[in-house]
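Entry 0007
Protein: tRNA (guanine-N(1)-)-methyltransferase
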Amino acid sequence: MRVDIISIFPEYFTPLDVSLIGKARQKGLLDIRLHQLRDWTHDVHRTVDDTPYGGGPGMVMKPEPWGEAIDAVVGAATTPPRLVVPTPSGRPFTQEVALEYAKEPWLLFAPARYEGIDSRVMAEYASRLRVDEVGIGDYVLAGGEAAVLVIVEAVGRLLPGVLGNAGSVADDSFAPGAMADLLEGPVYTKPPVWRGHEVPPILLSGNHGAIARWRRDQALRRTIAKRPELAARLDRRALDKRDREI
Ligand code: 6GU
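Output (structure tokens):
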């Protein structure tokens, strides 16, 4: 997958050099290219923002640098990228969206600072690219850069060959299938007793059927306790009799 990121803070993305995503890049599974938005300004101050029409606090990102930058990155590509614009007013970025993005050959991120990008930029590209405004949660960040890090990590780990153990994607909280809408339960490793706390004996039993049942029970209990609105969405028909007793 190719990923381009246009930002006034390309140095914000050094975390993408390390760990899982860094290794995926070294392996050639992920081709991440960073661009300085100010390279597409033409004034001595390399200005990217201006005051909002209609008044109000803060500044808005000017359309011209974004237009030139996006045109330059997209070039004459026959299969253009999906343009992802992180904004708290976008549709929610969920595991479902991550799975959708993981199928794309090319993503272009346009993270904004200040109060956002002049809306005509999204209108202009909507006729040429698939433009997706997405938010990562119900809170406000100082800019879209941290959201891009979140999205790239969520998508990158889903790409074939990135995770050592392919099974771990299927067991994720929110993964479609048996664990849909369920939070993952607690996990344990050696030693069997630590500071007096025991590992639940069922996990040492070797009874794989009973262990799977126990894990599902734990996932249900945790979901009910921590995410009641998710638990309410669980399809009663998908719950078996033992689930419904929890
Ligand atoms: Cl994508 N951007 C900003 N600035 N704040 C956010 C967000 C994005 N998602 C949640 N809050």
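Curator remark: The CA atoms of residues 112 and 224 lie 36 Å apart. The first strand starts at residue 2 and ends at 7.
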